[in-house]
Task: structure prediction
Amino acid sequence: MWGELAALTAAFCFAVAATIYKEPLRTLSAVSASILRFAGTTAILIVMVLFLWGPQAILGLPAQVIVLSFGSGVIGLAFGDVLYMHSFKEIGVARTVSLVGTYPLFTLVIEFLIGRSAIPFLAIIGTPLIFVGIWLLSQRMENHTENSESPLSKSGIFAGLATSFLYSISMLLVNDALLLLSSEAIESAVAVNTLRTAGGGVSLLLAAPIIDRDRGFLKVTRRIAMLLLVGSFIAYGVGWYLLTLGFALAPAAFVVPLSATTPLFAVVSAVILLREPLHRRGVLGVIASVGGVIVILLA
Result:
């Protein structure tokens, strides 16, 4: 019971974080937002790990685990997160989270292409549902909102799907890192996630002179900075750890489908709190994509 509850709470945390990002992205570029989020969150997580378990929790990890974890952050949390933020700005919270939530489909395809696993029968059922959901989510809204008529709205859809693809690679690397650990202690998973977050934060800071030349992440107000840090900590400091706890306490067959309900929470919060209009096709698109993901994960 506790494992399933942890997974469901993690899904809720991911949706809450996505809702919080909406206000900062009205005045901040996707790149600046990503740099600030992960630079700050990396510092918080490192301090937390050092305080709770000491430096050995990270330094004691095998070199291959460190490389895989850090590389996962560079791919998923640096490249992927900039695209994630761009998608938020262009098509809103509800659609972005729903599109990004299709990453298990990309994971399945990648594992098949590299010879790790065959495509299960249920995936043949779930995949069309996801594609139908993506098509419905990409349709224009009946009540147009900001940017809905802009040609950049297509780039928002592409960014959401590209984020999903990069997240799938990132999660495969994290999974490989965790499989290399002999201990199943939660602190090992926490250390891996901290390194993953550091991979995103460090790489974004190093690239800042090129990708954020006007140093937008240094010019934000205190309120905007706090919103980004709070949202990022809820997602990566609380949500990811709850998901890890869920895997430790309950079978993956229950945990993974429950964690895939993030788009449902995101749609509710986007419509109620952010006043994002979502037409009937959008609602059906969310249901179809989430249903397809759950079917694939059950396989």
About this structure: The mean pLDDT is 79. The chain has 14 helices and no strands. Residues 78 and 200 are 4 Å apart (CA to CA).
